[in-house]
Amino acid sequence: MRAAIVWATAAQATQLTWSEIPYRLVRLDDARVVMDDADLEVDDCFAYTHRLGSFCIDGSPVALAAVPAIDRTASALTQEQLLDVAARLVIGPDARAQDLVRALFEDFAAVIARAAKTVWPRSRQLRSNWTPFPALEPS
């Protein structure tokens, strides 16, 4: 899999983490990163994983079609298709992505409250070898 890597100072990593509130910073325990254009391997790799997990349609996780993948097992949808599904769950059976965006601008709190009941429960935590960061001290 190909990925972009951000080399950040401690201050930059802190600022980035604060800007990614819906995501949790994790250390990828078994990740091995090899650079394409450099003779370098990275042993400690961190990533952001969404706190709710992956959005599921009909009980199965879906992927963004714009993110290339080899041997993908999840159905891939465009961002607009995913938002269409969310719009139908939040607003009603005939709603589309643009209706959801408009509703968010008109009454953000009401849309989020409805999404908490209709969209968020359809999320599933991804199985992975990662440790929350900073790692919690054993009690």
What does the model show?
With 139 residues, the protein is of the alpha+beta class. It has one domain. The protein has 4 helices and 9 strands. It has helices spanning 10-19, 79-90, 97-106, 108-118; strands at 23-28, 33-34, 41-42, 45-50, 54-57, 60-64, 75-77, 123-124, 130-132. The strands form 3 sheets. A 4-stranded mixed sheet has the order 7-6-5-8. It has a 3-stranded antiparallel sheet with strand order 4-1-9, with no helix packed on it. Strand 2 (33-34) and strand 3 (41-42) form a beta hairpin. Helix 2 (79-90) packs across helix 3 (97-106) and helix 3 crosses helix 4. The longest helix has 12 residues, at 79-90. It starts with 9 loop residues before the first helix and ends in a 7-residue tail after the last strand. The mean pLDDT is 85.
